[in-house]
Amino acid sequence: MLLFCNLVCVVIGLVYGQETRPLLRTNSTTLPSISTTELPTSTLLSTSPSESPANTTTEVPTTTQAPITTKPPRPDEGSWTVTEKNVTCIRADLAIEFEIPSQNATIFLSPNATSTRSSCSLSNTTQALILEYDDYILTFEFEKDATSTYVRNVSFIYSSFRPDVFYNDTKLFLVKNGNSYLCKTTDFIHLGNATMYIYTIQLQAFATADETGFGKIEECELDDLVNDIIPIAVACALAGLTILVLIVYLIMRKSPQRGYTSV
Ligand SMILES: *[C@@H]1O[C@H](CO)[C@@H](O)[C@H](O)[C@H]1NC(C)=O
Ligand SMILES: *[C@@H]1O[C@H](CO)[C@@H](O)[C@H](O)[C@H]1NC(C)=O
Ligand SMILES: *[C@@H]1O[C@H](CO)[C@@H](O)[C@H](O)[C@H]1NC(C)=O
Ligand SMILES: *[C@@H]1O[C@H](CO)[C@@H](O)[C@H](O)[C@H]1NC(C)=O
Ligand SMILES: *[C@@H]1O[C@H](CO)[C@@H](O)[C@H](O)[C@H]1NC(C)=O
Ligand SMILES: *[C@@H]1O[C@H](CO)[C@@H](O)[C@H](O)[C@H]1NC(C)=O
Ligand SMILES: *[C@@H]1O[C@H](CO)[C@@H](O)[C@H](O)[C@H]1NC(C)=O
Ligand SMILES: *[C@@H]1O[C@H](CO)[C@@H](O)[C@H](O)[C@H]1NC(C)=O
Ligand SMILES: *[C@@H]1O[C@H](CO)[C@@H](O)[C@H](O)[C@H]1NC(C)=O
Question: Whose CA is nearest to atom 11 of ligand 5?
Answer without folding.
Answer: 112
